[in-house]
Amino acid sequence: MTLDVSREYDVQPLWLADRKIGWGVPLLLVLTFVVIPLLGNEYWLNAIFVPFLILSLAGIGLNLLTGYAGQTSLGSGGFMAVGAFATFSLVTHVKFISLPPALFLAGLIAGLVGLVFGIPSGRIKGFYLMVSSLAAQFFLEWVFQKFPWFYNYGSSGTISLPRLDIFGFNGGSSIGRYYLTLVIVVALTWVAANLVRSHVGRNWMAIRDMDTAAAVIGIPVDRYKILAFAVSSFYLGIAGALWAFAYLGAASVQSFGIARSFQIIFIIIIGGMGSITGNFIGAAFISLLPLALDYTVQSIFSGHVDAGLLQNIQKAIFGFLIIWFLIKEPDGIARLVKTFGERLSAWPLRF
Amino acid sequence: MNLFIETFIGGLLAGTMYSLVAIGFVLIYKASGVFNFAQGSILLFSALTFVTLKESGIPFVVAVGITIGVLIVGAIAIERLLLRPLANRSPMTLFMATLGLSYIVEGLAQGLMGAQVHPLDLGIEDVPIFIGGVLISQFDVVAAITALVLVAILALLFNKTRIGISLRAVADDTRAALSIGINLNRIWQIVWAVAGIVGLVAGMLWGARQGVQFSLSLVVLKALPVLIIGGFTSIGGAIAGGLIVGAAENLAETYIGPFIGGGITPWFAYFLALAFLYVRPAGLFGELAIERV
Amino acid sequence: MRSFLLKTILAAALAGTTLSVLPAAHSAPGEQYVPLPTYRVGPYASSGTLWWAGERDYFRYINEVEGGIDGVKLAVEEFETEWSPDRTVEVYERIKNGRDGSPVAFFFTHGTPASYALIEKGAADKIPLIDPAGGRTESTDGKVFPYAYPLLFNYYSQASVGINYIAQKEGGFDKLKGKKIVTVYHDSAYGRETQAAVELLAKKYGFENFQIPVADPGSEQSPQWRQVREIKPDWVFLRTWGVSTPVAIKTAARFGVPADRIIGDVWAGSEADVIPAGAAAKGYQALAPYPGGANFEIHERLRKSILDTGKSDLKDPKFFGAVYYNIGLINAVLAVEALRTGHTKFGNRPLNGEEGRWAFEHLEIDDARLKKIGFLGLLQPIKLSPSDHEGGGAARIQQWDGEKWNLVTDWIQADRETLRPLIEAKSAAYAKEHGITPSDAGKTTGKAE
Asked: Looking at the complex, does the CB of residue C23 fall below 8 Å from at least one CB of chain A?
């Protein structure tokens, strides 16, 4: 916060703090838009960065609902499925539509579905709401399994797009998918970051902290809760569509089951609820940790210990790390990093 | 008409199996305020331990005894390593921690005791009993009786023993209980151990029905609607909820299912729970949370 | 903003350290790389661990006792997927370029959902996807699906063999008219795969076809079997998987449907499916393109060199010869024989994906060869071609007696001529949707046929 006292009173700036962007964000953008595609090979782009970005987007979606608005939801997988299947239906049945508008419309459809399932949040709170979000999850899973119209009567129940048509040219290569995902994620992150700093975000946080008080001071609590569900599902829907088409290529309802919902909630818990950058950290953690764990454990024990035991021990270690993080820092790694950053900026003085 | 009665009674009995699982949840939630998602994994772990011991030749009763011992050790470990460091944290954090715990327990169960399916023979024949043209499963009847016996034992425990009354005190008002000198940590260990034993009973019955295998831990997803309808804090509610969910699910699958393609069991119970919540946001027998600013 | 920059730097450093943790190499250039996407964790691990044990034991046998395939050793590597198709896709991306100079000639998908997910990627990367007794049925038509192999026994053949067996038991196809056959299926794409075939056969032979779904996971099936009881069927075709199978058998017994009237499909016919059902499963029959049993010639050989020397991947030797163990053996031998076939054309060296395709499309194992490799009676004679990626289409029927599986028939052939038009209709639809022109038979690198 800089107050320029050298100038006369009547020429003082109206706002007290400059919102400097600094060079952190542009650096990151250059890194992701230019450096990584140049250096990265196909595996890294296809199988590491793209899912990382998509999971971060999903994390942002759930974070808006759970981290900022305080509504616990285990239905993330279902809403991702809505987005994926909606995109598929749009592209298959509306012949001339290109992918980005299809994604946007699919997001809107997912948002609408989220809105409907968010209506109970007016009456139901806490764990009860969480269990009713499971109703959404299981119902949506059933719908996309049961009615062949959704997967265009294909016998395998999977949906896939023959080509990723981005305004005319084919985005199917690994670079194309990477850029598609990156652009969408950057854009939506920017929107989310602004959303949480606006009155919408502040109202959400008020509802999260104490919704009775929020109602008392005049915030239309029910409306904002439903809005949170809608916006969150919009993000989740787009994330789901990207997951199905930009990452996997072909997906079925199985990719969006309850395990996926748990995965996303882990991302926001570990990354940090109520933070935007936390989602990225959490997604990196969740997607890279199994690989790193696998590599470490395999290189130490492989061949000497039964493979089944090894894999199960890894699962146990994963659970243990989750608990450890919760004990050490309930606000997630984002908070840890922030604290560390603040310590560094005060160094060598003690924090 | 016969079909209806049969479906209805069959559903009621099936529902008691769900209640058995739900009771474990209720115990822990009542005493420590934790929604223990790991109950399913603990169920699997205890059933697997029991079956592994029994298959290596150890007699039934001794195997049960050893398993209970393991569960007690587990409860102490959970209390020390999970509940104590996370005391006073938000319910969400605790829930997430139990999610992590479920991974640990599942990993240990399959890692140490293998992934193979084990049959479990409790000596109860799954033969049908005919009462006036209506088919009832003998196994389900035994399960229902077990559930009732369990509830009776728990009721005795809570009302007549010192430990039980302390548990109720802790559930009612933790601070007050602390202030009169009740050892909270000991209480939590006991509750988790009792919940583990309830899980063992449920695991044995479910295992006898479908074999002791990994999917046993998925029964927890069936118990959640039961908890909602019955309320998180009432054992009687768990029974009532179980009966309602079991009957409704069965009837719905038989009468409504064929019109929308069948296979509606995954979500029907949840929608039912949702409907109940609209009318009673804390479940039929649950405590209505009073919100203050 | 300093703290934001610092956050970024820290995050990058964290990412960098984990990024550098790339899996290390495990093979040498002269070896054939065989990646295995496995599942030793989760609900299907009970079947999985036996499956991989069968595969690994056979590959080990080939490497150690026979010195590799024509001298080319196999470098086997496992990757955990927890049966999730998403994770299988990730594994596929990781290994598709081989490892350390050893190329990948084929990819076992080890699960039908994974096959569905990878069909397009396999075609784009030119790596054959091998899914015996599974996969997408229309991929039998190799002209539209050059890189997908539902080897041995696709789902339509399963339906057909089931019906043929019923006809056998009833005393002839004409006796099928008017009979009631109920299919209880797992409510998923897997469970629905056979519906089209059963419908076609019902029209052909005049039996009544009922389809009843069971929702996943299927731990409570009273409503379904009550419905079955109302129908009073002559036969029940069980197309379930996982825990829904033992529950089905038990519930069926409870509702008065005897086990000897129930026929399970390939994935409902293992020990894990019947043991939990206890006494109710006595008499239950299952389709067995992979029979259970440890008395085949190959088992003798493996017993001598792998099992008794303690080199087996099996944790518990009592499962030697279990259905899933034999599934592993058969998967492995199909791959090995295919590679051998490929060597006759490309020389005795590791093969890549395109060469693997030629190898599988020209795979042929007759009775004489089966006898030589020790699989007579265990594996059916098989012959693939560029337009036929199934190659076999037969199964034996095994029956559970409470202790073990007993084979009650010889190889029953599926009615492939009747089913072929159905398959071609579906593959044509797929080709149209995806803009694929069916390739000409035999069109691969360097081949002039």
From this structure: yes
Which residues of chain C fall short of a pLDDT of 70? Answer: 1-29, 439-449
- Res B211: pLDDT: 84
Listed residue (B277, C31, C197) closest to A122, CA to CA: B277
Contact list, C224 vs chain B (CB under 8 Å)? 253
Q: Which chains are adjacent to chain A, needing at least 3 Cβ pairs under 8 Å?
A: B, C
Whether A248 and C14 lie within 8 Å, measured CB to CB: no
Average pLDDT, chain A: 85
* Structural element, H or E, at residue C108: strand C107-108
Q: Which residues of chain B have pLDDT under 50?
A: none
> What pLDDT was estimated at residue C21?
43
Looking at the structure of chain C, the number of domains it has is 2
Q: What pLDDT score was predicted for residue C263?
A: 92
CATH number belonging to the domain at B2-279, selected among 1.10.3470, 3.90.320, 1.10.760, 2.40.128: 1.10.3470
C147 within 8 A of C127, measured Cβ to Cβ:
yes
The CA dihedral of A70, A71, A76, A82, to the nearest 10 degrees, is: -120
Kindly provide the residue ranges of all beta strands, DSSP E only, lying in chain A, ordered along the sequence.
Answer: 159-160, 165-166, 169-170, 250-251
Domain count, chain A: 1
Q: Of the candidates A248, A284, A341, which has its C-beta nearest C3's C-beta?
A: A341
Mean pLDDT, residues A3-19 taken together: 61
pLDDT tens digits for range A31-44: 888 888 788 777 78
Based on the domain organization, do C217 and C196 belong to the same domain? yes
Residue of B41, B106, B215 to mutate, testing the C interface (most C Cβ within 10 Å of its Cβ): B215
Give the number of beta-carbon pairs within 8 Å between B and C.
116
And the tokens for C126?
């030119």
What is d(CA A82, CA A120) in angstroms, rounded to the nearest whole number?
19
- Residue A110: domain span: 9-346
Contacts of C137 in chain A (CB under 8 A): 155
**Distance (Å) from the alpha carbon of A70 to chain C's nearest alpha carbon:** 25
pLDDT at A20: 62
Residue numbers in C near A338 (CB within 8 A): 3, 7
pLDDT in tens, A192-204: 999 999 999 999 9
- Whether C254 and B126 lie within 8 Å, measured CB to CB: yes
Q: Which of A21, A25, A344 lies nearest to residue C6, judging by beta carbons?
A: A344
Residues of A in contact with C113 (CB under 8 A): 252, 254
pLDDT number for residue A159 = 86
Are C141 and C47 in a shared domain? yes
Cβ atoms A46, A174 nearer than 8 A = yes
Residues C331 and C193 in one domain: no
Nearest to C118 by CA among C105, C101, C131, C132: C131
Q: Check whether residue C301 and residue C246 sit in a common domain.
A: no
pLDDT on residue A303: 65
Asked if residue C177 and residue C114 are part of one domain, the reply reads: no
Subunits with 3+ C-beta pairs closer than 8 A to B: A, C
**CATH number of A171's domain:** 1.10.3470
Please judge whether A146 and B263 are an interchain contact, meaning their C-beta atoms are less than 8 angstroms apart.
yes
Structural domain contains residue C364: yes
Give the best residue of B21, B142, B210, B270 to mutate against chain C (max C CB count within 10 A).
Answer: B210
pLDDT at A216 (0 to 100): 92
* B261 contacts: CB under 8 Å, gap ≥ 6: A146, A147, C213
CB contact under 8 A, A307 and C116: no
In whole angstroms, how far apart are CA B6 and each of B12, B128, B203? Answer: 10, 12, 26
pLDDT digit string, tens, across residues A208-226: 988 889 999 999 999 999 9
B186-241 pLDDT, tens digit each:
888 999 999 999 999 999 988 888 888 888 888 888 888 898 888 888 888 889 99
pLDDT at A207: 93
The answer for residues whose C-beta is within 8 angstroms of residue C72's C-beta and 6 or more apart is C30, C31, C32, C339, C343, C348, C349, C350
- Indicate which CATH number applies to the domain containing C280: 3.40.50.2300
pTM, to two decimals:
0.88
What is the predicted pLDDT for the residue at A203?
A: 94
Domain that holds residue C225: 155-288+399-414
Containing C9, the helix (H) or strand (E) segment is helix C2-19
